[in-house]
Specification:
The protein is an alpha/beta fold. The protein is built from eleven helices and eight strands.
């Protein structure tokens, strides 16, 4: 057990293996445990570092997660990388952690060797603002994407309300079905997954903070070798973001995990590890 102190935060982290560092950045409702399968699969050839962001288990932090933003989480990651001597790391981010990782790549390019984005929830790639005009434009261009995004937003609002009322299981009962667009044909999650989600239920509120601009233009400035991964059963908004990212980042590689959704890293870990391992080997 280790804790990093830097940038005004205390972050729990675990390391395994040796060699070129691979730093894993988890999404909302998750923590360092979400990467167990990837750590197990890659630590024989790399130094893996899985940490828990600001409000994630087991970090003890007071507040309601509204001081957890993409911007300061990227700064936390930079402090962690420099503080632990991990410069030149491969950075792997999932979901909201993928947004943080992509933003990190635009702000601290000297600190990473490669970037992997797994179902990265970089919302500005689809809609540049929350204005009615921008939302209407998305609805007209891609009605399936817009409707799935609206379902996610409604689920987020309801879940935050119920969690604040003392029901952390709302994150499993309400938010996950909204996130996965109501699909019932997804592979089972690993044992303990629901417990991780409930333990981190309060972190969902960080998704209501103001996002930085990270549109096609900003993504086009990323120069690190990049792999974009997503599950083919992901919600339309989710797959849409990954597709735009893969088109916008120069030279980006893309990989679609068949028979998996937003949590493809947990649903199809062997496939994700194979794609990730191959990518890292070519850029190490």
């Amino acid at each position: 057990m280790a804790t990093f102190q830097g940038n005004g935060v205390s972050l729990y982290y675990e390391t395994r293996g040796s060699g070129r560092p691979v730093v894993f950045v988890h999404g909302t409702l998750c923590d360092y445990r979400s990467w167990s399968a990837q750590v197990e699969g890659l630590s024989s050839g790399y130094k893996t570092v899985a940490y828990s962001r600001r409000y994630a288990f087991p970090n003890a932090r007071e507040g309601d997660a509204t001081d957890s933003t993409v911007q300061n989480n990227a700064a936390d990651l930079a402090a962690l990388v420099k503080g632990l001597g991990l410069e030149g790391a491969h950075v792997v981010g999932h979901s909201y952690g993928g947004f943080i990782s992509a933003y990190f790549a635009t702000q601290y390019p000297e600190l990473l060797r490669s970037l992997t984005l797994i179902n990265a929830a970089v919302a500005p790639m689809l809609i540049s603002s929350a204005s009615p005009a921008a939302q209407l434009g998305l609805l007209l261009r891609s009605p399936g994407v817009a409707l799935s995004a609206r379902r996610l937003l409604a689920g987020t609002i309801e879940t935050i309300k119920e969690v604040q009322g003392g029901d952390p299981q709302a994150a499993n009962r309400v938010f996950l079905p909204a996130l996965e667009n109501g699909r019932r044909d997804l592979p089972p999650k690993p044992a303990g997954f629901a417990g991780v989600v409930a333990a981190n239920a309060r972190t969902l509120k960080e998704t209501t903070t103001k996002f930085p601009a990270l549109t096609r233009r900003e993504a086009g400035g990323i120069r690190a070798p990049t792999l974009v991964v997503w599950g083919d059963l992901s919600a339309p908004w989710d797959a849409g973001i990954s597709q735009v990212l893969s088109e916008s980042i120069p030279g980006a590689e893309s990989s679609v995990i068949r028979g998996a959704g937003h949590f493809c890293l947990n649903e199809k870990p062997a496939e994700v590890n194979e794609r990730l391992g191959s990518f890292l080997a070519r850029h190490s």
